[in-house]
Design brief:
mainly alpha; 5 helices
């Protein structure tokens, strides 16, 4: 729930997916083409967009979170523990990716 304290992160997470889909639609259009089985680009690739959004969000949010932790002095406290910094970063990325995929999967199965 730490992410809820950062309104910019929440706003980005909610608005990035529709903006990404809109940009892809503006760039590639949605006219039916034979390469996509008579479907448009957006319709053919719509199921891949959430995975792309989750990956991009993880790559953007993790560094911002690290900078926030550094400013709060959390990373300095990690030096006093035997915890490997690379392992901590990997755990952060994996946990965010796992939560994102669970949310995506639950969303797809409840429709």
């Amino acid at each position: 729930m730490r992410a809820l304290r950062e309104p910019v992160t929440v706003i980005f997470a909610l608005l990035f997916a529709p903006a990404f889909i809109g940009c892809m639609g503006l760039i590639f259009g949605n006219n039916p083409v034979p390469e996509f089985g008579g479907n448009g680009f957006l319709k053919a690739n719509f199921t891949a967009f959430p995975g792309i959004v989750i990956a991009i969000s993880a790559l953007i949010i993790v560094p911002v979170d690290l900078v926030t932790q550094r400013g709060a002095g959390v990373l300095r406290r990690f030096r006093a523990t035997p915890l490997n910094p690379a392992l901590c970063l990997a755990a952060d990325v994996v946990s965010r990716l796992t939560l994102g995929l669970i949310c995506y999967w639950r969303r797809r199965t409840t429709r």
